[in-house]
Amino acid sequence: MANLEELKTLHVEDLMSQPRESVLELWRSLPAPQPGTFDGEWFGYVHVRLYTTAYLPTTATLQYFQRNKTGTRRIENGHLLTSTQHGDDPEFRADQMEISYNLAKHGKFWLGKSYKSDSGGIRGEGVNRYLASDGSYKRLHRYKWALSESKIDGKPAIVGSYRGFENVQGTEWEMCNEMRDLGDGRMLSATYANTTVKGVLPRMRADGMGSDIEFFTLTGPVAPWKRLRDPEMETRVTLDYN
């Protein structure tokens, strides 16, 4: 198993290609993010061993991105990867950054998450960010988060829950994310739900009580927080993962 200090230094894409057991050990060793340090929009990277060929982008979708998006792109481990110029923004360690688009069905790609703190900084709201195949950006699937005890190991984490919102993650999956700080504008999250979800949470826990833990990383913040414009959209739009 890799040394934890070595794992911490990996680029997030390289980290997401490590064995799940190593990533879990690293996650357990990390602190919770400091309040007020993660407001805004973040790019997301999923664990590459999670996905199957069923979730590779379609040829038509790839052709669209090749025609209409700047930068280079390739298929790797079930992801559509793109390299985009970000100028001199100090939040980035280099001018170019790889964005991992996680293909849901119907031509929507998961881009990451967005967070907003309340006045106390220890709780707030969030939303997921998607890129549609027509080039538009969508903000869907809200959640609430708070600095609280992890259900995994009892230590502090930023725990996000979808319960209480009319989206599939809340009403059907009861999904939770637990985020900890990797440093240098990087977060590592463990995610789980009360059921397995094909392409998202495919493994059952050994005791059969919900899904096993999966992982994603976030880098940023890359842009200010933007709210979901139409909350009722969540009842009309569903990303079909099944």
Which key features would you list for this structure?
242 residues, disordered C terminus, single chain, alpha+beta, eight-stranded antiparallel beta barrel
Q: What Rg, in angstroms, do the CA atoms define?
A: 17 Å
Distance between the termini: 33 Å
Mean pLDDT: 73
Total E-strand runs = 11
Largest sheet: 8 strands, antiparallel, barrel
Helix/strand class: alpha+beta
Strand content of the residues, in percent?
Answer: 35-45%
> So how many helices?
5
Lateral arrangement of strands in the main beta sheet: 1-5-6-7-8-9-10-11
Which regions have little confidence, pLDDT < 50, spanning 5+ residues?
A: 49-106, 236-242
Q: How is this structure best described in words?
A:
This protein has 242 residues and is α+β, with helices and mostly antiparallel strands. The protein has 5 helices and 11 strands, in the order H-H-H-E-H-E-E-E-E-E-E-E-H-E-E-E. An 8-stranded antiparallel beta barrel has the order 1-5-6-7-8-9-10-11. The longest helix is centred in the first third of the chain and has 10 residues. The radius of gyration is 17 Å and the shape is globular. The C terminus is likely disordered.
